Amino acid sequence: MALLTKAQINSVVDRKWEDVPVPEWGEGAMVRLMELTAADRGYIEAGSVVANGQNPELKVESLKVYREKLVGMAMVDEKFERLYSNKEIAAGELGKKSGAVIERLAAKVQELSRMGRFAVKEAEGNSGAAQSGSSVSD
Prior knowledge:
Layout: H1 6-11, E1 17-21, E2 30-34, H2 38-51, H3 56-64, H4 66-74, E3 75-76, H5 86-90, H6 99-113, H7 117-125
Antiparallel strand pairs: 1-2, 2-3
Helix pairs in contact: 2-3, 2-4, 4-6
């Protein structure tokens, strides 16, 4: 098999998505959640790392909006464009919605993005797999 080029890699759509019912937001209401990009996931995880640091105010503030960041960065329209900008997420627009709904949607984002307990489940499923090929580090 031939190695991929940068253009081939950049053209591949490799993120999973799922339409999720949200009956609390209206009869037949659904939202589309998409697996987080590497950049969005890094942004969220960096906030968690900072939250575990020495400054308790950063910890509280970061954890307070963790679920809203997950949902806001993963919620997309039919064209797979994000519904909420980082600025809108930071302004707390999703923080005004039902905590139970945001929690449920955040869990789905974690599942799609293989984060948290879903990363552990995947790792457990792959624990017996042997690594093949060689690796070279710079």
